[in-house]
Design brief:
There is one protein chain. By secondary structure, this protein is α+β, with helices and mostly antiparallel strands. The chain has a single domain, classed as Arc Repressor Mutant, subunit A (Orthogonal Bundle), CATH 1.10.10. The protein has four helices and six strands, in the order ββααααββββ. The strands form two sheets. It has a four-stranded antiparallel β-sheet with strand order 1-2-6-5. A hairpin with a 2-residue loop joins β5 and β6. The longest helix has 13 residues.
Length: 131
């Protein structure tokens, strides 16, 4: 019977994945040039699917499909961009800074190093010291 661990462990700054299907989802997303372009585009700021479509030169339907793949793989986070007009839209932010694949006696594991939040503190508020 093949080794098929189903565990997921998390610490404050990283997540380790050992479930084979979850590892494969991350690797598939990272192997896709369109997904890599989206990850690169969301490196500095959260963007809507329309903004990603334009910036990455993708059809809007492709941008939505790739965003879904990246979100399912745990590489992007969907947020709500609030507008003064009352029409809110989804925007997507990259969740990880580094991905490390490890092969040892127990099999494969994948570690995702989380990004520090890119969300600015509200006006007049100082961000909490994370040390």
């Amino acid at each position: 019977m093949p080794y098929a661990p189903q565990s997921l462990t998390a610490s404050r700054d990283s997540t380790t994945i050992e479930a084979e299907q979850s590892i494969q989802d991350v690797l598939d997303a990272l192997d896709d040039p369109d997904c890599r372009a989206i990850l690169d585009a969301t490196g500095d700021e959260a963007l809507t699917a329309g903004e990603l479509s334009e910036q990455c030169e993708l059809a809007l339907s492709t941008a939505y499909r790739k965003v879904d793949d990246l979100t399912d793989a745990g590489l992007l986070e969907e947020r709500t961009r609030i507008s003064r007009s009352g029409s809110h839209t989804s925007e997507y932010a990259r969740l990880v800074e580094d991905v490390h694949l490890t092969l040892d006696d127990c099999g494969l594991s994948l570690s995702l190093s989380k990004r520090r939040s890119q969300t600015p503190a509200p006006r007049g508020m100082m961000p909490a010291n994370s040390d």
